[in-house]
Design brief:
Layout: E1 3-7, H1 29-36, E2 39-42, H2 52-60, E3 67-73, H3 80-87, E4 94-101, H4 107-116, E5 123-127, E6 139-140, E7 150-154, H5 161-170, E8 175-179, H6 186-197
Parallel strand pairs: 1-8, 2-3, 3-4, 4-5, 5-6, 7-8
Helix pairs in contact: 5-6
């Protein structure tokens, strides 16, 4: 898999021009993006879950090897099955699922989710309550030593070349790395720069 680097989202009209060419229509953004990068983080799925058909359309719009990392805001256990049924429509375009959990440590919730997910679905846990600390046996977001893969989110731009060189030296394969979007098309430029140091 190597190291895949992308942005958090792609559908930003303010990136035109600068990243997207002048005149490129929003419906063409994903195809253009996927010609340049091999992954994207879907954050909107944490607020409104698209239909399975929408996930299929996104999968059809990108080339082989491209992966979507999908955000799942875990608020109710009865939504796990519906979420999985829909995102699995991405097929082999499904990257890791980032599970955002705001609540305090609850090993029962953790066990339920782990037991509900098909074996080939990779989870990256984004625990927001400090009571979780380090959890053995799961991938936690921004843990450079996680196994069997790393899921890193860069949230504090701007990044100097020295910052990116230093970061690149610490990222082990396999890993997914996502740069936060801003109104200006700085995130795609940061991705290009980071990739040049890997």
């Amino acid at each position: 898999m190597a190291i895949k680097v992308g942005t958090s989202g792609w559908s930003y009209p303010s990136w035109r021009p600068g990243f997207y060419p002048e005149g490129l229509q929003p419906a063409e953004f994903l195809g253009f993006y996927a010609e340049r990068f091999d992954t994207v983080e879907l954050n909107s799925t944490g607020y409104r879950l698209p239909s399975a058909d929408q996930f299929r359309r996104w999968a059809d719009a990108v080339p082989d090897g491209f992966e979507f990392s999908v955000k799942f805001s875990l608020t109710r256990l009865d939504r796990v099955t519906t979420f999985l049924e829909r995102v699995l429509a991405l097929g082999d375009r499904l990257g890791p699922v980032r599970v955002v959990y705001q609540g305090p440590r609850d090993d029962g919730t953790l066990s339920f989710v782990l037991g509900s997910v098909p074996e080939d679905v990779r989870l990256a846990w984004d625990f927001r309550d400090e009571s979780w600390g380090v959890v053995d046996g799961v991938v936690q977001v921004n843990d450079h030593d996680a196994e069997p893969f790393r899921y890193l989110r860069l949230r504090e731009p701007p990044y100097s070349d020295d910052d990116l060189r230093t970061l690149a030296a610490t990222i082990r394969d396999p890993a997914y790395v996502y740069v936060r979007h801003e109104d200006e098309p700085t995130a795609p430029a940061t991705v290009e720069r980071l990739k040049s140091y890997l």
